[in-house]
Amino acid sequence: MPSEDVVRADTQRWLERAVIGLNLCPFAKGVVAKGQLHVAVSDARDEDAVQARLRDEIRDLLALDAQVRDTTLLVLPLALPDFLDFNDFLDRADAVLDELDAVGELQIASFHPDYQFAGTDPDDVTNCSNRAPYPMLHLLREDSVERAVQAFPDASDIFERNMATLEKLGAEGWAALGVGATKESP
Fold this sequence. Notes:
Elements: H1 4-20, H2 28-33, E1 37-41, H3 47-63, E2 71-75, H4 83-99, E3 106-111, E4 136-141, H5 142-151, H6 158-177
Parallel strand pairs: 1-2
Antiparallel strand pairs: 2-4, 3-4
């Protein structure tokens, strides 16, 4: 397992170079600059442990004012390495939102090193818009998403713009960003 420091550094590099650097999420820069992003690195290895940690992170996020913590990235370096298992787990993640009466307050976005949109090939560079160095669950406040969408003139165009950006960058350009997980020596 990579150390927590390595996981945090990999996550920070991905945020800086891909998410903010390529402007894949035009709302991320402000949240990061204001220190309102919480990165939680979990040592969970199985789905039950991930679900328990997710429950804790949702409670923690809801307990704080958005000015203090607007969003949380739950990073899972030891859990759900298979994308299909990760994708199946998302139903359990949504069930936690429901259990905690957080539907309508929070939403969960998903990222994975092998993320693949339905109908795409595994090596399609557009999948990189949701690829991260480790499996991640991104907890977003619905109110913050609404405000960001209102402030961004063409929010509905973000997905298409991201696809065009990634197609122009290409697989070699994505690889050159160096935003994957650091391989530690044994």
